[in-house]
Design goal:
Number of helices: 13
Keywords: ATP-binding, Cytoplasm, DNA damage, DNA repair, DNA replication, DNA-binding, Nucleotide-binding, SOS response
Strand content: 15-25%
CATH topology of the largest domain: Rossmann fold
GO molecular function: ATP binding; single-stranded DNA binding
Number of strands: 14
CATH superfamily of the largest domain: P-loop containing nucleotide triphosphate hydrolases
Number of domains: 2
CATH architecture of the largest domain: 3-Layer(aba) Sandwich
Subcellular location: Cytoplasm
InterPro entries: DNA-binding_RecF, P-loop_NTPase, RecF/RecN/SMC_N, RecF_2
CATH class of the largest domain: Alpha Beta
Main location: cytoplasm
Length: about 350
C-alpha cells in the first residue's frame, strides 16, 4: 500500500498540513528551513514509526504542543493510517482503527529514504550496504525475516561458544548457521539480480536522452556473500575453525557480506566523482523500488531530500528523464524549482509544491 494523502498536526514546524501525493513523482521546493525535509520525514515516520533524522521522536513535536499526529490515506485500498506521539508516551500506530507494531507498519506501507549515506553508498562500510538490501528483503519476503533471525540467533550462540574456547560447542550451531545462511545468501543474490535487470533497463532508456548516462552502463553489481560460494558455507566454517577460535568470532558467513559496485574492474569509489556516485546511488535506489513493485507486487515510497546537492548541471540533466520511468511514488525536494513555471506533458504525473515558509 502507499499513501495518496497525508495530514500532519503539530509535526516539527507544521501546526497543520494536508498534502495530496502523486501516484508517481511529487516534488517539493523552497528555501532552506521552510519545512521540505520535515514533510519527507513525516512520510518516513508514517511508514516506519521512526525518523531518518533522530532517534528522539519527542523532538518531532512542534514547540508548545503536547504531541503530534499523522493521518494518511491509501485511496487504492481504502486504508487509513493514524500515528500519534504524546510527550512521555510511546508512539501509537493504527491501521483501519487496529493497533499494529512498527514491523507490521513497515510491511504495510514500505518506504525507503535516500540520505547522505546513501548518496555515497560505495564509500560506506559493508554493514551499511548489507542493511540497505536487507531492508528491501524484510519488506518483501516473510521468508527473509525467518532466516535472518535464525541465522543471527545461531551466530550469537556460536560466537559465545568460541569466546569460551570450545570449538566442539561452537560447531553444534553450524547446521543452523549453514541452513539459514545459505538461504539468506540466495535471497540477497536474487534481489540484486532482479534490481540489476531494472537498473540496466533504466540506463538504456536514459542513454537515448543523455550521453552522460553511458558511464552507468559500464557498472557491474555483484554480491560478495561473506564466504566462498563455490565451496559452500559448511566447508568454509570447517576451514576457519582454528582461526575463529583464535579470533573468538565467526569470520565467514552472510554477516560479512558486501555489495560490490565496479566499472571495468575498478571500484566505483575510486573512479567516480561525487556527483556521479550520488546519481548512481539514486538510480540504483529507484531501480530497487521499481523491482519491488514488479517482482513482489509492493508499492514502496522512495524519498530523496535536496536532489541537486553534489550534482552538477550535467548530472542533473542526466537524471531528470528518469522521472518518466518511475513506477511507484517518488517524493523528492530541492531548493529551487527544476521544472520552471509549468510541467510539460512528459511530466504530467509529477506534482510540485512550493513550500514557502514555516507555518
Amino acid at each position: 500500500m502507499a499513501f495518496s494523502n497525508i495530514e500532519l498536526r503539530n509535526f516539527r514546524c507544521f501546526e497543520k498540513l494536508s498534502l495530496d501525493l502523486s501516484p508517481k513523482s511529487t516534488f517539493l521546493y523552497g528555501k532552506n528551513g521552510c519545512g521540505k525535509t520535515s514533510i519527507l520525514e513525516s512520510i518516513f515516520v508514517a511508514s516506519s514509526g521512526r525518523s531518518f533524522r533522530t532517534s528522539n521522536l519527542e523532538s518531532l513535536i512542534k514547540e508548545g504542543a503536547e504531541g503530534f499526529s499523522i493521518r494518511a490515506y491509501d485511496d487504492l485500498h481504502g486504508s487509513i493510517l493514524e500515528i500519534k506521539k504524546q510527550r512521555k508516551h510511546s508512539i501509537n500506530i493504527k491501521i483501519n482503527d487496529s493497533k499494529v507494531t512498527a514491523s507490521e507498519l513497515v510491511r504495510a506501507f514500505p518506504s525507503f529514504s535516500i540520505d547522505s549515506k546513501t548518496f555515497f553508498y560505495n564509500d560506506n562500510a559493508p554493514e551499511y550496504r548489507r542493511k540497505h538490501i536487507d531492508r528491501g528483503l524484510f519488506v518483501a519476503s516473510p521468508e527473509y525475516a525467518k532466516n535472518w533471525f535464525g541465522y543471527f540467533r545461531a551466530l550469537k550462540q556460536r560466537n559465545s561458544a568460541l569466546k569460551q574456547g570450545s570449538i566442539s560447542q561452537a560447531r553444534a550451531y553450524d547446521y543452523q548457521l549453514v541452513t539459514h545462511g545459505e538461504r539468506l545468501n540466495d535471497l540477497r543474490q536474487s534481489l540484486i539480480q532482479d534490481t540489476n535487470t531494472v537498473f540496466l533497463e533504466l540506463i538504456k532508456s536514459l542513454l537515448t536522452e543523455s550521453a552522460r548516462a553511458k558511464i552507468f552502463s559500464e557498472v557491474s553489481v555483484n554480491l560478495f556473500p561473506g564466504f566462498d560460494d563455490n565451496e559452500g558455507l559448511q566447508s568454509e566454517l570447517l576451514k576457519t575453525n582454528t582461526y575463529d577460535l583464535r579470533r573468538k568470532s565467526t569470520t565467514k558467513g552472510p554477516h560479512k557480506a558486501d555489495i560490490i559496485f565496479d566499472s571495468k574492474g575498478s571500484l566505483i569509489k575510486d573512479i567516480f566523482s561525487r556527483g556521479e556516485q550520488k546519481l548512481l546511488s539514486i538510480l540504483w535506489s529507484i531501480s530497487q523500488n521499481i523491482m519491488l513493485g514488479r517482482v513482489y507486487n509492493l508499492q514502496p515510497i522512495l524519498l530523496l531530500d535536496d536532489l541537486s546537492s553534489e550534482l552538477d548541471s550535467e548530472m542533473l540533466e542526466c537524471f531528470l528523464p528518469a522521472l518518466k520511468h518511475i513506477e511507484n511514488r517518488f517524493i523528492f525536494s530541492n531548493i529551487v524549482d527544476l521544472f520552471g513555471s509549468k510541467i510539460d506533458e512528459s511530466n504530467e504525473q509529477l506534482k510540485k509544491f512550493h513550500v514557502e515558509q514555516r507555518p
